[in-house]
Design brief:
Keywords: Membrane, Transmembrane, Transmembrane helix. By secondary structure, the protein is mostly helical. It is 72% helix and 4% strand. It is built from three helices and two strands.
Length: 96
């Protein structure tokens, strides 16, 4: 579990390796789109069957999942930029 959150070093090059959970973000994005599509399907079924009293729940859930996923992707992008900056500083300190 520690490898998911800690920064480890590549034994061959000595460079830091970014956290492993960054590689999972594209899968979360695909999963969010699948959930949003299922929520849209549920809303479509409710509209077709005339059960309009519970349309709001799946609609809000689908939009919330997408918004959270894209907010998280933005956070990861900022973290990657910060990590790249730290790597550049680390390598410049080693070269001096």
């Amino acid at each position: 579990m520690g490898a998911l959150y800690s920064i480890t070093f590549d034994p061959r090059s000595g460079r830091p390796i970014p956290p492993m959970w960054w590689k999972l973000v594209p899968f979360f994005t695909v999963q969010a789109w699948v959930v949003a599509a299922l929520m849209a399907f549920a809303v479509g079924l409710a509209i077709r069957d005339g059960q309009t009293d519970w349309i709001v729940g799946p609609s809000v859930a689908g939009v919330a999942v997408l918004l959270f996923t894209y907010w998280h992707r933005a956070c990861i992008a900022r973290a990657k930029l910060h990590f790249a900056d730290l790597i550049a500083r680390y390598e410049s300190a080693l070269s001096q």
